[in-house]
Amino acid sequence: MWKNKHLNFFLFMVSLTSGIALSATALAATTVSISPHTSPVSPGDTFNIEITVDPEVPIAGMQFNLIFNGSIVRVNSVTEGDLFKQTGANTFFNPGSINNAAGSVTNVYGCIMGKRNVSTPGTFAIIGVTASKSNAAPGTYPLELTNVKISDTRGNAVPIIVKNGTIIMQTTASSKTPAPSPTKAPSPIPSKKRIPGFKGVYAIAIFFGIAYLLMRRQKTGCII
């Protein structure tokens, strides 16, 4: 009877200790997130999504895969962020393999070269994405991180929490205001040629009259 009581107490303490240890492990988990968590985009938009890390313990390496809808978005590039470069350390980064037909980016990994580590938040990878123009039906589409692993300086895996993201494809309607039609300039009115008036005709008549009389005077010797 006494032995059974002590055995039950011992099992209770082991269970309680295990529970506390598991809770502490959960609280000490490093968080891996897709940022922004939600990305509203329009067909044809080009934008970036970031894989961010908030370390709970010092870390030195990471890997992940990304799953997405290849008919809605296209991944253009994967580049290294600043996570492992914060202390000025040399790093190694593999951008992985992009397969837009399958909707995946696989085997992205990187690490610090040497014995350094980081314990402050940063961006591990930056992914350049373009939204489809032809198949971009409005809706919400998931971005999922898989095979995520983070290691410490000894190469041991650390506990993690993964927060995935979504892409919200907006309507294809354009909100641009049409440009106003150009205003046609009025045609210039041609100027009218002035026709000599009565005064002009009278002066011309007098001129010819005087010329006639002078010619006659020269012929006849008459004085007017």
Task: Describe the 3D structure.
The strands form 2 sheets. Strands 2, 4, 6, 7, 8, 10 and 12 form a 7-stranded mixed beta sheet that branches. Strands 5-9-3-1-11 form a 5-stranded mixed beta sheet, with no helix packed on it. It has helices at 2-27, 198-220; strands at residues 30-35, 38-41, 46-54, 61-67, 73-80, 91-94, 97-99, 104-112, 122-131, 139-151, 160-163, 165-169. The chain contains 2 helices and 12 strands. The protein is elongated. A hairpin with a 4-residue loop joins strand 7 and strand 8. By secondary structure, it is α+β, with helices and mostly antiparallel strands. It is 22% helix and 37% strand. It has a domain at 28-169: Immunoglobulin-like (Sandwich).
